[in-house]
TrEMBL record:
Bilayer topology term: Multi-pass membrane protein
One Pfam entry name: ABC_tran
Name used for this protein in its record: ATP-binding protein
SUPFAM superfamilies documented for this protein: ABC transporter transmembrane region, P-loop containing nucleoside triphosphate hydrolases
Residue ranges of domain ABC transmembrane type-1 in the record: 19-281
Family matches, as Gene3D superfamilies: ABC transporter type 1, transmembrane domain, P-loop containing nucleotide triphosphate hydrolases
PANTHER family according to UniProt: ATP-BINDING CASSETTE SUB-FAMILY B MEMBER 10, MITOCHONDRIAL, ATP-DEPENDENT PERMEASE MDL1, MITOCHONDRIAL
Gene Ontology molecular function: any one: ATP binding
Domain ABC transporter intervals: 337-562
Record localization: Cell membrane
SMART domains: AAA (SM00382)
Main location: membrane
Length: 563
């Protein structure tokens, strides 16, 4: 399927609104044509009546064009207004659909596939590119459809009065509506593609630069970064100038041809008048009608240009959305059942594109309700176990089961209902403590939030803040200390109360007393059937668990209880 046929599929649910917008746009353009056409007639009628006196006034009905002019003027205003409302509403709905569809397509790719993309590039694709795709209806399809329908109508109406004038009009409209804009679009295609590419790179670079601004300052590289951005901006400006120049040239040619064609139509009509086949009133009518006809082809050069931009934008968005997920969705999804035991048997796991095994011949059994510490050196494979459990990555050898079902038959969504995690690189959202807690559980009551904060040893701090639960945490929890942010992440998982809790270095950044209080409160608060898997380098924390499992070189070794 081409990009445009895929866009058409996305448009399907709003096609009624889109067709209504088209009908109104056609009506407004036809009313505009009718207004100018009849204005010409009215002018001629008034002139003839003035010159000819009473006899001519009786012979010429001046009231009919006057009523027609008022009618078309009213219809044009109403139709134009309604067209704006309907087409903009359809456009916004369409952009919403494109965004929702893209987001849905990305979910199975998170986090493994998305981690390969640059975040600035992704932002650009899902903000600017989706906006561009949304413009397809309003600024590409609509002008083309309106031009095609109205031009045919104008030529037919003109042909009723003068066939030769209609032929001149048809030729000029064809030239202005297709050939000139098409040539302009072809000539600027390369610059259009360059703009998209350069903007893409610049946005990705800018996001990275803003995120690492501090580091650039420390490294004394701020000046070179500024130059880099300025160079990119110059490249984009040069390409944009070329595109604008071509678009402006096409517009100028269209205006010129429109005027010349109106003059030619007037000349032909004058000739017909002298030959006695056309009345005097038709002369200005045809000339003004001819000019009005060019109003609908005026937006076409911009529409052809935008067509190129939309194609590139759609290609970029579809390219990301079409990437296969790292873990194929199970053909038949299974739901884990009690007891929620985790069992790895001779498991082998290799990350995509890695030429070594992160886990190999790994055997592990964790029963529901157990509290297990995972210890081991950096790079041993502890986080890999989490990645497998959440179905972010797949294993290639051996078997794994959770809750008596094969892990390969469980999807990430199901796993997240059973397993909660406080990851090492947890993410807090911009907003208040309340908002972050409600992301974990949207229907949590205030009492439940305070209880979770108390267990996470954060209630005292939040209570002391004037805004309480509405205290803002800043982006990535920047307004909190590292230890407070981690405890808020712990409160989130407590609030969710999953059957399995994975804590990755839960007490990092905490003083000895808070660490002790936190672990004691957490263990006391959890129901007996809750399983804890605690990844830690802290011997004291490991000692609080029932068992210690050592991870080394991709295998699990039972160590027993901590001393
Ligand atoms: N996304 C990835 N792509 C390729 N290799 C990876 C990826 N993530 C981890 N690895 C590799 O897999 C191995 C196990 O890494 P893992 O993150 O599981 O270690 P870890 O025990 O959690 O270490 P740490 O205690 O430092 O967090 C390492 O050799 C690491 O380089």
């Amino acid at each position: 399927m081409t990009q445009f046929s895929r866009l058409a599929v996305l448009m399907r649910p709003i096609r009624r609104e889109m067709l209504m917008g088209l009908a109104l746009a056609v009506l407004a353009s036809l009313a505009n044509f009718g207004l100018l056409f009849l204005s010409g007639w009215l002018l001629a009628a008034a002139a003839v009546a003035g010159l000819g006196g009473i006899v001519a006034q009786n012979a010429f009905n001046i009231f009919l064009p006057a009523v027609g002019v008022r009618f078309f003027a009213t219809v044009r205003i109403l139709a134009r207004y309604l067209e704006r409302v309907v087409t903009h509403d359809a456009t916004l709905r369409f952009i919403g659909r494109v965004r929702a569809w893209s987001f849905e397509s990305l979910i199975p790719q998170a986090p493994a596939v998305l981690a390969r993309q640059r975040s600035g590039d992704m932002l650009f694709r899902f903000v600017s590119d989706t906006d561009r795709m949304g413009q397809f209806y309003l600024e590409v399809m609509l002008p083309f459809a309106v031009a095609a329908i109205c031009c045919a109508a104008y030529v037919v109406v003109t042909g009723l009065f003068s066939v030769s004038a209609a032929l001149v009009l048809a030729t000029s409209l064809l030239l202005c509506g297709t050939i000139i804009p098409l040539i302009a679009a072809k000539l600027s295609a390369c610059a259009t593609a360059q703009i998209s590419l350069q903007q893409d790179i610049m946005h990705a670079d800018l996001t990275e630069i803003l995120q690492g601004m501090g580091e650039f300052m420390f490294l004394g590289a701020a000046g070179s970064v500024q130059e880099h951005i300025a160079r990119q901006q110059t490249n984009i400006r040069v390409c944009r100038q070329k595109v604008l120049l071509l678009e402006g040239g096409a517009r100028f040619l269209i205006t010129l041809i429109g005027t010349l064609s109106a003059v030619a139509m007037l000349a032909l009509a004058t000739h017909a008048y002298h030959a006695g086949t056309l009345s005097a009133a038709c002369l200005p009518m045809l000339a003004l009608g001819g000019l009005a006809a060019f109003d609908v082809v005026g937006p076409l050069p911009a529409a052809w240009q935008l067509l190129g931009h939309v194609r590139v934008a759609a290609q970029r968005v579809f390219a990301v959305c079409d990437q296969p997920p790292c873990v194929p969705l199970p053909a038949v999804t299974a739901s884990p059942v009690q007891p929620l035991d985790l069992c790895f048997c001779n498991l082998g796991m290799r990350y995509p594109e890695a030429n070594y095994w992160a886990l190999r011949h790994a055997n592990l059994l964790i029963r529901q309700g157990e509290h297990v510490a995972l210890v081991g050196p950096s790079g041993a494979g502890k986080s890999t176990l989490i990645n497998l459990l959440f179905r972010f990555y797949d294993y290639q050898e051996g078997t794994a089961s959770f809750g008596n079902v094969d892990l390969k038959n469980v999807d990430a969504d199901t796993m997240s209902q059973h397993v909660g995690i406080v990851a090492q690189d947890f993410h807090l959202f911009l907003g208040s403590i309340r908002r972050n807690l409600m992301i974990a559980r949207s229907n949590a009551t205030e009492d439940e939030m305070w209880r979770a904060l108390k267990i996470a040893q954060l209630a005292e701090f939040v209570r002391a803040e004037p805004a309480g639960l509405d205290t803002l945490v800043g982006e990535e929890g920047i307004c909190l200390s590292g230890g407070q942010a981690r405890r808020l992440a712990i409160a989130q998982v407590v609030l969710r109360a999953p059957a399995w809790i994975i804590l990755d270095e839960p007490t990092e950044g905490l003083d000895a007393q808070t660490e002790q209080d936190l672990m004691a409160a957490l263990l006391a608060a959890l129901p007996p059937q809750a399983t804890i898997m605690c990844i830690t380098h802290n011997r004291k924390v490991a000692g609080l668990m029932d068992r210690i499992v050592r991870v080394a070189e991709g295998r699990f070794y039972e160590v027993g209880r901590a001393p």
